Amino acid sequence: MSKVSKRGFDEADTRWFSEKSLITLRKAHKEIKWLIDREYKIENVVTFVGDRYQFSTRQRDALKRSTCTTKNQIIRKEKELSINEMSNGIIQIDTFNLIITLEVALSGGTLITGNDGNIRDLAGLRGTYKLIDKTDIALELIGELLKDKEAKEVRFYLDSPVSNSGKLKSKILEYSKQWGFETEVELVNNADIVLENLERVVSSDSIVIDKCKSYFNMGKSIIEDYINEANIVNLSN
Fold it and tell me: Which segments constitute the DUF434 domain (predicted)?
């Protein structure tokens, strides 16, 4: 993996998320939130608003991933645990969700933060994944934060149908030898379905954090503490 790869990096983002474009995107964000608060479906609303402003696919994806209803915003905030509570029990990690976000951050790719305070990527990987040069760095940072917060037991969940999930499992177990806390890695058919029923979950996936019992905003903590060069776009300002 000596080749340098840039996960989720798109040169066109300098145009799609320029200061001028952000003015319109933030206006659209408010309009979308107003409509979905009145029970309009977000897919239809993003299409409607996106057509009005002639947004690109990347811009529409950013708006969809960064906007939730006021109701869900409140639910997510109530479920969110302080990162300093990590030592109080097992930590259940949505592995691809966390790893890919960190890889994008390390690659200088665009990250989006919305009205729920979670940071999400625009990588758009669906069922395909390969380890890149940023994967090792991401795992080092995950271990660093977990050790700093005195984690006792961590369980990583990986979707087995996703390509190279077995290789990532081996890589995590390799790093776990130097972490100093109990680590398990589980290959499951659908990690989201498993995590939806658990507490103390690490994820920024909207469906997961809406359904799980409690969660940590760990990706945001790692990015803010360790990845100063991360390119984060805030659409809720």
Answer: 25-79
